[in-house]
Design goal:
With 403 residues, this protein is of the alpha+beta class. The chain has four domains: 72 residues, Nucleic acid-binding proteins (OB fold (Dihydrolipoamide Acetyltransferase, E2P), Beta Barrel); 83 residues, Beta Barrel (OB fold (Dihydrolipoamide Acetyltransferase, E2P)); 71 residues, OB fold (Dihydrolipoamide Acetyltransferase, E2P) (Beta Barrel), CATH 2.40.50.140; 109 residues, Nucleic acid-binding proteins (OB fold (Dihydrolipoamide Acetyltransferase, E2P), Beta Barrel), CATH 2.40.50.140. The protein is built from six helices and 20 strands. The strands form four sheets. It has a five-stranded mixed β-barrel. A five-stranded antiparallel β-sheet has the order 8-7-6-9-10. The longest helix is centred in the first third of the chain and has 26 residues. It starts with a helix and ends with a helix.
Length: 403
């Protein structure tokens, strides 16, 4: 075998070994994580010094239990809890994680590393300065947090945060740590997004959920259903026609709603209050049998007829051909007006299509006949359609034109 062949075989063996070594690292999870990478883990065990976590198929990790102590020195998490952590490093087969870089002895190297990897840092809000807050990050490190980056929404009393310890992300790190800008808002937005995604994963169309009305708008009502906000359009507030959401709901009201549609790409959820209520059409044939007489309210006038509300969510139609009592009219407004109470007779019901055909009955029929006759007389008197106005109107207009 030649030297060239020996060198080629040796190179091949080295490449094979490197490939196997890389795969071995991948199987242990050492190369899968990058410093600063955020993962969701489940707590396996809590000891006095360490918390052991399961990070999925890639192995286990540890985190300092001091990160979860309350003011009384008690650990605030337990076995089975799920937490969000950041990968720090791997040494001797142990993967170290953290929820944030702590204050105290945090040096410039740690802060610079936190900036590069995106790991949150803990800071003490010391005082209010022009445009924001001065935040102590540890040791002698000072940072600036603009007012716009301290919370998701504007805080009415900025001084209320002074003296509090909060988590921040370093957005800018300059002049070897002498110029640091931090943001708490980005962390809150990430947590809000995480909760939103978890909530979205747990809902589906058709589910009924409890929620709280957060605002009323001209087009409907927004309802918080546990970290997610959905819209109940006006058409889904009730079976009856609703013109203003305030007719049905009020801000802060607890309601049960049905999830009508989910658009995960646009993060839009359509809700329905109507679907949680009894459908009035389920009993319509019993409540309004064919041939029966009822009193309703004229809801809307159209060119082809008049819609009459018999009960909330149940409207019937009187066709224009049945409004003139045998005489031709040009529009239902010649006989009826919106909001008027009128007696009607149920002619037919189409339950599947949610249609009820009505006609005028009793006194209403006689009144309609009188109105139709009057409209016909006006038309004959003026020689113009009834919609042109009365004879007196035309004479007054003609007189005005001559002046």
């Amino acid at each position: 075998m030649t030297d060239a062949e020996n060198n080629r075989d040796k190179t091949q063996e080295e490449e094979d070994f490197a490939d196997l070594f890389e795969k071995s690292l991948d199987s242990k999870g050492s190369r899968w994580h990058e410093p600063g990478q955020k993962v969701t883990a489940q707590i396996l065990k809590v000891t006095g010094e360490w918390i052991f976590i399961d990070i999925g198929q890639k192995g286990e990790g540890i985190i300092d239990s001091k990160e979860f102590l309350d003011l009384d020195g008690k650990v605030t998490v337990g076995e089975g809890d799920r937490i969000s952590v950041y990968f720090l490093s791997s040494s001797h087969g142990e993967m170290r994680f953290t929820t944030k870089v702590g204050g105290g002895a945090s040096g410039s190297a740690q802060l610079e590393g936190a900036w590069q990897s995106g790991i949150p840092v803990e800071g003490l809000v010391e005082k209010e300065i022009k445009g924001g807050y001065e935040v102590k990050l540890g040791g002698t490190a000072r940072a600036f947090c603009p007012f716009s980056q301290i919370a998701l929404r504007r805080i009415d009393d900025p001084a209320s945060l002074i003296g509090t310890r909060l988590s921040f992300r370093i957005m800018e790190y300059g002049e070897h740590g002498r110029n640091i800008i931090v943001s708490r808002r980005v962390l809150l937005e990430e947590e809000q997004q995480r909760l939103r995604e978890e909530a979205q994963a747990g809902i589906s169309e058709g589910m009924r959920v409890n929620g709280t009305v957060t605002s009323l708008q001209p087009f409907g009502a927004f309802v918080d259903i546990g970290g997610l906000e959905g819209l109940v359009p006006l058409s889904e507030l009730a079976w009856a026609r609703v013109k203003d959401a305030a007719e049905v709901l009020s801000v802060g009201q607890q309601v049960q709603v049905s999830i009508k549609a989910i658009d995960r790409d646009k993060e839009k959820i359509t809700l329905s209050l109507k679907d949680t209520l009894a459908d009035p059409w389920d009993q319509v044939t019993l409540q309004f049998p064919e041939g029966s007489f009822h009193t309703g309210s004229v809801a809307r006038l159209a060119a082809f007829g008049a819609f009459v509300t018999l009960a909330p969510g149940v409207d019937g139609l009187i066709h224009i051909s049945k409004l003139g009592a045998g005489k031709r009219i040009n529009h239902p407004r010649e006989v009826l007006k919106e909001g008027e109470s009128v007696e009607v007779k149920v002619e037919s019901i189409d339950r599947a299509e949610r249609r009820i055909s009505l006609s005028l009955g009793g006194v209403a029929r006689a009144a309609a006949e009188e109105e139709a006759s009057l409209a016909e007389f006006r038309q004959q008197s003026t020689g113009k359609p009834a919609g042109m106005g009365t004879l007196g109107d035309l004479l007054a207009k003609a007189q005005k034109n001559r002046k």
